[in-house]
Amino acid sequence: MSAEVKSPNPTTEAEPTASSATVPMWLIALMLLLLLGGAVYFDARGGWFDARVYRPFAALPEQFQPPPPDGPDLRPGRRIYDAACAACHMVNGVGNPAVNAPPIAGSDWVLADGPNRLIRIVLDGLTGPIEVSGKQYGGGVMTPFKGTFTDEEIAQVLTYIRRNPDWKHDASEVTAEQVAKIREQTKDRAINWTPAELLTIPAKD
Ligand code: HEC
């Protein structure tokens, strides 16, 4: 019987050794998954070059202006006009003789009592001799925008051209409901309007 405490024998205890072992596959797979997850997350949330990220810094003065206190917000309509109409009618609305586009600024067609003819012009386009504010134009063709813009967008662009303070326009607002009604009434039309034809339609209901 021995009360002797066995001390670990340093000679039989193995020395720690360094050896090579392969990295487990699951760890590599996990790392790749994390990398992929991070990339997907960044892609979804990073914003890239989205206008919503950069627009506030894009030096668009309108962005810094609050909507006019009275009347509708003209900013969405201005964006549509600048993108879709200004190519022919010019940003400042003076028209362009090179494509026989008459002016929008000061136009009696634009400032009519109601939007009945304007809505038709934007939906199905226009061609044929036209008198705008006492001057003759003709020979040009305005393309239809039926398939391009929603009722809301057509209402916005027409509201903008009818109320643009830069042109001293102060005609009534155009609503999406007015556009929807005329779109329905003219849904079978497949050719441009002519000014002569439009003049037979009352400008206002
Ligand atoms: C491809 C060129 C072109 C584009 C783009 C264009 N128009 Fe026109 N627009 C014309 C021409 C040309 C006429 C005159 C047609 C004629 O001679 O009968 C005209 C006539 C008009 C008229 C009636 C005359 C006047 O000057 O008041 C209005 C209103 C009008 N366009 C609004 C618009 C709006 C709003 C847009 C954008 C949604 C637009 N146009 C886009 C070429 C264009």
Structure description:
It contains seven helices and four strands, in the order ααααββββααα. A two-stranded antiparallel ribbon has the order 1-4. A two-stranded antiparallel ribbon has the order 2-3. It has two domains: 23-65; 74-198, Cytochrome c-like domain (Cytochrome Bc1 Complex, Chain D, domain 2, Orthogonal Bundle). The protein is mostly helical. The mean pLDDT is 89. The chain has helices at residues 25-45, 51-54, 75-89, 116-124, 151-163, 176-185, 195-198, and strands at residues 126-127, 130-132, 135-137, 141-142. Helix 3 (75-89) crosses helix 5 (151-163), helix 4 (116-124) packs across helix 6 (176-185) and helix 5 crosses helix 6. The structure holds heme C (HEC).
Helix-strand layout with pairing:
Blueprint: H1 25-45, H2 51-54, H3 75-89, H4 116-124, E1 126-127, E2 130-132, E3 135-137, E4 141-142, H5 151-163, H6 176-185, H7 195-198
Antiparallel strand pairs: 1-4, 2-3
The protein binds heme C (HEC).
Heme C is lined by residues 84-85, 87-89, 99-104, 107, 109-110, 118, 121-122, 126-128, 130, 132, 137-138, 140-143, 145, 157, 161, 195.
List keywords for this structure.
205 residues; mainly alpha; Cytochrome Bc1 Complex, Chain D, domain 2; two-stranded antiparallel ribbon; 7 helices; 4 strands; 37% helix; rod-shaped; binds heme C
Query: CATH-wise, what's the superfamily of the largest domain?
Result: Cytochrome c-like domain
**Helix-residue proportion:** 25-40%
Q: What overall form do the CA principal axes indicate?
A: rod-shaped
Beta-strand portion reads under 5%
**Sequence of strands across the biggest β-sheet:** 1-4
Question: What's the order of the H and E elements?
Answer: HHHHEEEEHHH
End-to-end separation in angstroms reads 120 Å
